[in-house]
Design a protein that fits this description.
By secondary structure, this protein is of the alpha/beta class. The protein is 27% helix and 19% strand. It starts with a helix and ends with a helix.
Length: 659
């Protein structure tokens, strides 16, 4: 019995062993088949030549030939080719061909910009590529339906040095879905994690503006107009300058705030769902704006400003488009109720984004003397009382976003003592620039539920615009102060009532008197550290000119020399410095990119290690987080960060190893 049992057991073991061996052999045989299949197609390759005439071009033109030295014929319908690129804009794309040996109807394309490539396929009518042969030339043209431009400088598969056909491994070839040639391109980089949207709100203390940490800040910005006009419905100049480059230039020059004039009519069109197109966009200059509507360009602008540390202030320049010369904030097309609805819609859109920090309620309310069509300033409930209207609009905005600054401009005329708006005239009224008269604040201050959000604003111009009484004789900074600036608005600062923002000032330097005025006001703003937004970035401001020369790319250095002393040159963002973070610049431990190492960095690092976030706010956050230099980001880095903040250590191990 024991011997039989032993034999049966041995037989069972041998059977199992044979089964395992057979199974393993089966696997080996299957894998060998796969290897043979892959090996058979090692001879497939792509030869490439660049057909584009420039790196910024209206189409991507990879000219290719597929070579077959695999040892067998290949059906082209089994092949797919991928071209790796980065898409700019939103316009749909199509594949066409200048020439293809297989016939244009036998080739098709699918675009996957979210994956970073276009895929080219072939129909059964394309035939086969014989062993030792090739497909013939295929002059591919990948383009947008708008004929908009591509910026190919960051495209993985683009190489202008290939002026004749040669083997090229930055395009990939697939046979029945398997990669048989080339090196796949990277996925498009994810959008960087934006800085927090709720830590940069500002508030008022006396005549100062302060940030959430209690630091005094200064708004020193610039205007870029166009959204308020029917001729543009967006920024002027985008046919000559690049949007991102222009915004970055502003930041690098020291402007930390962009005042964006806009109209209630345009906002109401957006509110209704209407797609409004922007004029003056040249996709050669702005390939990323291709296919974007005016509202999408505005959103794009706000998002880009997150990267360069600038903030935005909306200025309701008029009720209707091109109505900025009208006296009031309502007209026959846009009622006061419509005007309020426009403000509410715009506020709602950006209420959670502290890139938009202020709302200038109405540009230049004006009108002289008496009548229902002039903007007045008193305590009446009259529809043309700007003070009362501003209070109503402010409350509607604050109900949606209690964090935003409310900017209220003045009017043009204010009655002298003993007169009011029913009986004042040429010799019984104090007049100033449109929106520049705030004498009424002394008797009738704006009253809102959040007084710590109220900022007054005026505009001031020189004799080129209009020869005011103070320009009719020899003037200097002292006479301007005594006759215009102090009685009309600076008293508000001097008496610690509220901050003052000079919403518009600017002019040409051709005439000596205008240059003199500009230099006087520039010196006054710099000396008193007043908030301001210069008029304008645009050179197409007919009566003032702009910061930029006619090419929209060159700074008027003579004018900038007057402006520069007025600029604070510091950003209003707690994370992104003004001008953005210089690529490659970082400090170990500074994972949020504000060039400081504090408890916020520790909090972000903890969240990353706990996998609550996948990225750091700073583009260099991953480098900065690895403070022990081991190539990983883990709890050891968190521990070292704690010790650093507690001053137990003064440097990180990675810094010591790099010394």
């Amino acid at each position: 019995m024991g011997q039989k049992h032993f034999k049966k057991s041995l037989l069972s073991v041998l059977t199992i062993f044979a089964t395992v061996i057979s199974y393993l052999l089966g696997i080996i045989i299957v894998n060998a088949d796969d290897t043979t299949e892959d090996t058979d197609f090692e001879g497939l390759s792509i030869h490439y030549m660049d057909g584009s005439l420039d790196e910024r071009y209206q189409s991507m033109r990879p000219y290719i030939i597929i070579y077959n030295n695999s040892g067998q014929d290949v059906d082209m319908a089994d092949l797919k080719v991928r071209y790796y690129y980065t898409k700019e804009g939103t316009t749909e794309e199509v594949l066409t061909c200048f020439y293809t040996a297989i016939g244009p109807t036998n080739i098709f394309g699918e675009f996957h910009p979210e994956l970073g490539y276009a895929e080219i396929g072939f129909t059964s009518g394309a035939g086969t590529i014989k062993d030792g042969g090739n497909s013939g030339q295929m002059q591919l043209v990948l383009k947008k339906t708008s004929n908009g431009y591509y910026d190919q400088t960051n495209d993985y598969s683009y190489d202008p040095s290939f002026t004749d056909y040669a083997e090229y491994d930055k395009m990939t070839l697939y046979y029945k879905g398997k990669l048989v040639w080339g090196k796949e391109g990277p996925l498009p980089p994810p959008e960087p994690t934006p800085p927090p949207n709720d830590d940069d709100w500002l508030h008022v203390e006396g005549n100062l503006i302060k940030d959430s940490k209690g630091n005094t800040v200064y708004l020193t910005g610039i205007n870029w107009f166009g959204f308020e006009t029917d001729g543009a419905n967006g920024f002027y100049g985008l046919n000559k300058c690049n949007l991102e480059d222009s915004l970055d230039l502003m930041a690098k020059l020291g402007f930390n705030l962009l005042r964006i004039p806009i109209s209630a009519e345009l906002i109401l069109e957006w509110k209704s769902g209407k797609r409004v197109e922007t004029s003056f966009v040249n996709t050669f200059e702005n390939p990323r704006l291709d296919g974007l509507s005016s509202l999408e360009i505005l959103d794009y602008t706000i998002n880009h400003m997150k990267k360069n540390g600038m903030k935005a202030m909306f200025d309701m320049h008029g009720a209707s488009k091109d109505s900025y010369q009208d006296n009031l904030w309502y007209d026959k097309n846009v009622s006061f109720e419509d005007f309020i609805e426009a403000w509410k819609w715009l506020t709602e859109r950006y209420k959670d984004d502290d890139t938009v920090i202020a709302m200038d309620l109405k540009n230049e309310p004006h009108g002289k003397f008496s009548g229902p069509n002039i903007a007045k300033w008193d305590d009446s409930d009259d529809p043309n009382n700007w003070k009362r209207a501003a209070e109503i609009i402010a409350e509607e905005i604050l109900a949606i976003n209690p964090n935003v600054l409310i900017v209220v401009e003045g009017v043009e005329a204010y009655p002298m003592d003993g007169y009011d708006y029913t009986n004042c005239g040429e010799f019984t009224t104090y007049c100033n620039w449109w929106g520049g008269n705030l004498r009424g604040v002394a008797d009738h201050p704006v009253t809102i539920s959040a007084p710590d959000k109220l900022v007054y604003s005026v505009h001031d111009y020189g004799p080129d615009i209009y020869v005011q009484p103070w320009f009719k004789k020899e003037f200097d900074i002292n006479s301007l102060y005594e006759e215009c600036w102090y009685p009309n608005w600076y008293y508000i600062v001097d008496q610690n009532i509220a901050p003052m923002l000079i919403g518009e000032w600017g002019g040409k330097l051709k005439n000596d008197n205008n240059r003199k005025w500009l230099e006087c006001l520039g010196s006054f703003i710099a000396d008193k550290r007043l908030h301001h937004t210069f008029w304008a970035f645009n050179p197409n401001s007919a009566d003032t000119g702009g910061l930029m020369l006619e090419d929209w790319k060159t700074v008027d250095e003579e004018k900038y020399a007057i402006i520069e002393p007025t600029l604070w040159k510091k950003g209003l963002d707690h994370v992104i410095p003004l001008g953005g973070i210089t690529p490659g610049t970082f400090k170990y431990g500074d994972v949020d990119g504000d060039l400081e190492i504090d408890s916020l960095d520790l909090s972000i690092l903890k969240r990353y290690v706990l996998r609550k976030i996948n990225e750091f706010p700073s583009p260099n956050g991953s480098k900065a987080a690895d403070v022990d230099g081991d190539g990983e980001i883990n709890s050891f880095d968190v521990s070292l960060m704690k010790r650093y903040l507690l001053r137990i250590i003064k440097t990180f191990p990675v810094e010591e190893s790099e010394q």
